[in-house]
Amino acid sequence: MTPTRAGVALLLVGIICLIVVALRAEKVRVETRIQAHTAEIVHCRRQVWSLQMEIARLRSPEKIQQRIERFSLTVGADFDRWLSPDTDEALASLEE
Amino acid sequence: MKTNRSTESNVQRWQLGSAKLIFGVALVLFVGLAVRLVYINTVMSKRLLDIAESQQRSRLAIDARRGTILDVRGRLLAGSRPRYSVYADPAIIEQPDEVARMLGSVLEVDPGVLENEIRSSSTPRFCWLERLIDDAQADAIRSMHIYGIGMRSEFERYWPMDETAAHVLGFVGADGHGLGGLEMRFDEHLSGKPGYRTTLRDARRRAIGGEASRIVAPQDGGHLVLTIDSVIQHIVEKRLAEQVEQYNAENGIAIVMNPRTGEILAMACVPTFNPNHYNDFAVSLRRNRVVTDPVEPGSVFKPFIAAVALEQGFVGPRELIDCHNGLYNFDGRLMNDSSPHGEMNIRDIIAYSSNIGMGIIGTRMGDEALYAAVKRFGFGTKTQIGIAGESGGIVYDTDRWSSYSKTSVPMGQELAITPIQLVTAFSSFFNGGYLLRPRLVRSQLRADFTTEESFVEPEIIRRVVPEDIAHYMATQALPAVVARHRPELDVAEYPTAGKTGTAQVPHSDKGGYEHNAYLSSFIAGAPYDDPQIVVLVMIRKPEYALGHLGYEVAGPAVRDITRSTLQYLQVPPANTQASAMP
Question: Considering only the top CATH level, what class is B230-579?
Answer without folding.
Answer: alpha beta
